[in-house]
Each structure stands twice: as C-alpha cells, then as structure tokens.
Amino acid sequence: MKTKALKALFIAAGLSLLASSSAFALTDPYSYLSGGSYRMKYSNWEQLGGDLVNSSGYANFTPGSYANTGEDLRGLVQVTQIFNPSSNTTPAWQDGVGGAHIWGVFYGFSVNSVTATDAHFSGGVIELYTLAANINPFTTGTGEWTGGIGGATYKSINDLNSDGVRDVTPWLTARFASGTDPANALTTLAAIIDSSVVPINGTGAGYFNVVEAGDTVPVGLHNGIPGTQFNTNSVATVFGLRDAILANRFNTPVDLDSDGFDDNSGVPCVPGAGLACQLFQGNWHFVSEDPVRGVIPEPGSMFLLGAGLLGFALSRRKQRG
User: Fold this and answer.
1) 11 in a domain, yes or no?
2) Which of 225, 242, 81 is nearest to 175 (CA)?
3) How many CB atoms lie within 10 A of CB 306?
4) What is the pLDDT of residue 309?
5) Beta strands of the chain (E only): which ranges?
6) Cβ-contact 295, 302 below 8 angstroms
7) What is the DSSP letter of 29?
8) How far apart are alpha carbons 160 and 318 in whole angstroms?
9) pTM (2 decimals)?
10) Domain presence at residue 287
11) Do 124 and 186 touch, CB atoms closer than 8 A?
12) Interacting residues of 6 by C-beta distance below 8 A, sequence separation 6+
C-alpha cells in the first residue's frame, strides 16, 4: 500500500529525444534497455485521504465501514534505476543519466475494505514523465497537487503553469489492474498491514496495464501496442494477462528517539507530532521503495515473466530505542 507505487516504468527502442520544459533535449531512458525482462527500482511518496485519515490527519487503518466516497490514496513516484535481464547488479539506466529524471504521479485509488491485517483498493492510474531537473518531495510537499480533490496534476511534474491541466507529455501511462486478490476482480492494489505497531508498516502488491488509445488517461510516448514496447501482456494472473507487476514494503514515519526526525530516513517529521509522528515534513504519510518487473520484447521473440500471483508477507523494521 505504501503505494510505492509504483509503484514504475518504461519506453521504446532506439535512441530518441524528448523535449523538456526548459527547451533542451533529454536522452530517452528507453534507449538503454534491451529485450527481455526488465526491473525498475523506485521510491514513492504517498498521501492518504478520505476514509484512511483520522481527524488529526494521520493514517487510520482501524477496521470499519468504508464508503468509497472519494480518493483514498495518491502520491509521487521516482524511478531511480532500470535493470536489463543480463544484470541484477549494474543498472542499464539510473537517475540522471542523459540528463533525465523519471518522475510520476499515481492517483485514483479508493479503498474497498480494511481489516486488522489488510487493505484492498480499486482503481488507480500512474503517469510517468521525464524531467530535466530533479525535485525534492519533502520540499515541494503535498501542496503542489493542483486541480482540486482527486486532481492528477502536480506542479513540478506535469502541471508547470499550475492551472490543474497537464502541460507535459507522459513518458508512460498505465492503469492498475486486478490480479492480486483471486476472490475479488475489483482489487487492483492489495496490502498487508500491521497497524498495531509503531511505525504502521506492511507490504503491498499490484499489476499494471499500460494505457491504450481511446482511454481517458493520456497515452504515453512509449505505451506502444500489444506485443511491443511496454504493452506486452506478458504477466499471467487469474484475471488475465498484465504488462507489469509491482511489490513493495512501506511504513509511516516514527520518532522513537524524539529528535524531530524519522528514525529510518532522517527526514523531519511534522513539528509537535510526537513519537508516532505519522506525517513527514511536506505532509506525506508514507515513503517506500521497491522494484517493478515487466517485459520488453526482443525482435522475433519475447521473454515471459514468471506467471502466477504474487505472494507477499508482512515485513517489520527493527525499532530503535
């Protein structure tokens, strides 16, 4: 659920150039990738809303009735490394190569259910962009969302004139898809949660389908068509083929040593929040990082990613103190 979202991903063959907002060309990260399975490392900054926030603005996973009346989860994602199948240790591309940074927004999640041990979400879209300048989400914060509640635009990424309308062409766009919950075709993001500890933590999993022409979400420069680029239908689930899979671990900030900083990341907590600060400076509820996996076809053949549902287990971090 740390929606590490994604948790995410991709672009087309050869060496192409993208025009940035500052009027110079960036090297397209897709040009560094070969055919076969790829793996992307990413970081997420997530903001809860609606049913999952209590009156103090903190994360709330108390089991109860959830009305699905609005957006419950959105955030930012930064792709930091992309690996080709030939190497798990040396990235084919990493942040800053060719002057490019890959940042994105994810939004449109509504919670279906929350129990003492898990949460299921429906919906969800991710849009990735190449930027010429890096950003710091702890500085820009949640206040850079534009377009009102549920808005899909963020000033530093895809709404540079802050009018609530995208003014940058996406690198890649995808919808979260069912597959993680065999009993519920509406679930697009599933999380195992332990809300009885400080920090609240857990694991999440989901699948992607890249957006195709005719969708209400903009088609990215490298979405492609089935069988090409990132739109490969190469990951099997009980509800059909998907294009990529993500998995992540997440936790809320915690300040057990009372120094005003999250014990794990060193990022400032919201002043006066106490031990279980639950909000980072900039008002993000979670930060996480983990890989997205998928397939890029080779000429004449395509490597399939292993089929089946992703199993995920709760992971806890040792607490300081």
Assistant:
1) no
2) 242
3) 10
4) 22
5) 17-19, 25-27, 36-48, 73-83, 93-94, 101-114, 118-131, 145-146, 153-154, 172-177, 189-194, 201-210, 235-237, 240-242, 244-251, 286-296
6) yes
7) G
8) 40
9) 0.84
10) yes
11) no
12) 42, 44, 77, 104, 106, 126, 206, 208, 246, 248, 292
Distance between CA atoms of residues 202 and 184, nearest Å: 20
C-alpha Rg value of the chain to the nearest Å: 19
Judge contact between 20 and 116, C-beta under 8 A. no
Cβ neighbours, 10 Å, residue 207: 26
Domain that holds residue 279: 17-296
Sort 212 into a burial class: Cβ within 10 Å, 0-12 / 13-18 / 19+: middle
Do residues 112 and 51 make contact, with C-beta atoms less than 8 angstroms apart? no
In a domain, 234, yes or no: yes
Please indicate, yes or no, if residue 307 is contained in any of the structural domains. Answer: no
User: Beta strand 101-114 with 73-83: parallel, antiparallel or unpaired?
Assistant: antiparallel
Report DSSP letters for 38-63, one per residue.
EEEEEEEEEEE-GGGB-TTS-B----
Percent of the chain with pLDDT strictly greater than 70: 81
Q: Give the pairing type, strands 36-48 and 73-83.
A: antiparallel
- pLDDT, tens only, 201-248: 888 899 999 999 999 999 999 998 888 889 999 899 999 999 999 888
Overall number of domains in the chain: 1
| Residue the block writes with tokens 């399975």 | 37
Locate all alpha helices (DSSP H) within 170-219, ordered by sequence. Answer: none
Distance CA 208, CA 204 (A): 14
pLDDT value of residue 68: 65
Beta bridge partners of 189: 121, 206
CA dist., res. 128 & res. 44, Å (int): 13
